[in-house]
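Progress against Task 2.4 (sequence-to-structure conversion) is shown through the following example record, which the project officer requested during the mid-term review.
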Amino acid sequence: MNQTTKRIYGTLIGVAFISGMTGAFAFSAINHLKAPKDAFMEGTEISVAGDKHVDDDMMTLAASHSTPAQPIDLTEAAQKACDAVVYIKVTQNSKTQTIEYQDPFEDFFGDFFGRGQGGTQRRQVQTPKRQAAGSGVLISEDGYIVTNNHVVEGADDIQITLNDNREFTARVIGTDADTDLALLKIDGNGLPTLVIGDSEALKLGEWVVAVGNPLGLNTTVTAGIVSAKARNLGATSANDDVRNRIQSYIQTDAAINQGNSGGALVNVRGELVGINAALYSQTGSYIGYGFAIPTTIVKKVVSDLKNYGTVQRAMLGVSGMSLIDYIDSQKAKDDKFKADYGTNDGVYVAEVTEEGAAKQAGIKSGDIIVSVDGKKITKMSELQEATTHYSPGDKAEIGIIRDKKHITQTITFRNTKGTTAVVKSTNIDTLGAEFKELTDSQKKSLNLSSGVQITSLKEGVLKSAGMQKDFIIRKCNGQTIKTVKDLEQVFKLAQNSEDQTLWIWGQTPAGKQQSYAVQLGE
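Structure tokens generated for the chain above:
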């Protein structure tokens, strides 16, 4: 064996020896590091989708710290909603209105020449024809549609277009400004509808779908999650009444834009859980916040509008604000203010209405309302939503904290008039007549400064009282009637008064003066 061959074999033997030592050291180190993890995982079986066991250590660790993705299929919910959501086009016709304005020249020269009338002048103006659009939701096969009050308020004509392009003319069954809801009716059968679900069961983070007609784009679907519940968008003060505009919204990050108002918010099962109502934006366009009226409020309002034409609202008879807001407001006035109410949740009662339901139940100013029939109340919006479930005459157990002690009082809800009777609609249509303001030529020929004329008369309280078509109403309950709006305002006040009577004075076109006592009744 020559010298070169010896060197080669020597080198190979050295490499083999070093490799063996390195392998032995690595094996020992791996066993040393693996022992604690194996002890920790002993008896634990890790699997991924399909129950396929993973033997690789790193994959096993990854699987133990993750949850398999569960895809959300919103196609069925979207299709159900699209079929039941309608496009609403409203028209306000041009009208002649009498306005008052100040004329500084008439005021100056009139007084100078001794014929001044305070500078107040009247003139008639012609308002332009207006059109707007929104959305609505079919909730019955025979054509009942729920939408927002602000979509149809003041409309002279309401046109409905379904997803299949069928068109209908709608009539208003009733509206409720306090909840911003309205109920419409079209004539039809077998129409597509949405099942009304339970918004109370919604959970934060749950997927929802918003469907409407935003920005002129028909049948648009957006998706998001429930971001918050019982959200109040308005500022509160200690004088807020529970009956004031009810704000207890579902907040979602599903895009809601102008035109979405009145559209549907549905859950993954395609059930209606809210009526889209508002977006919160400084620009007027969607920036991540949308709000819907929950079906816990919608169901009661729709039922009342359908059966009575107006909402039978249960009045608690207190004014106040969320306790935490009250505490903050007091601290803002006095940084040394300290109060221990035994809780930071609930509604602080600032004032109790005399002869109201709360007063009769023994609730006092300074009490903290914390529950209604066992349902926890943490803020004013939750109290508003909770009381919308009740009608006048219903009873409920109101949980309060007084002097850090829990007390339960039984309350009997009352209506806006302080009774438990059914309240009838304050819609002037219930008078059974149509009205118009006198034209300039009529005023001149009749030598009148103002008045509202009955243009048509059907069965109703006016006809029962003996009034005739073309009669000119000049005064009602002591108020001078210049416009139809004046008559509406007096009618609403009378409807909510104790005697519920309209004292009408006016004249026939022939000039014969007449007066009538119109009993509105309960």
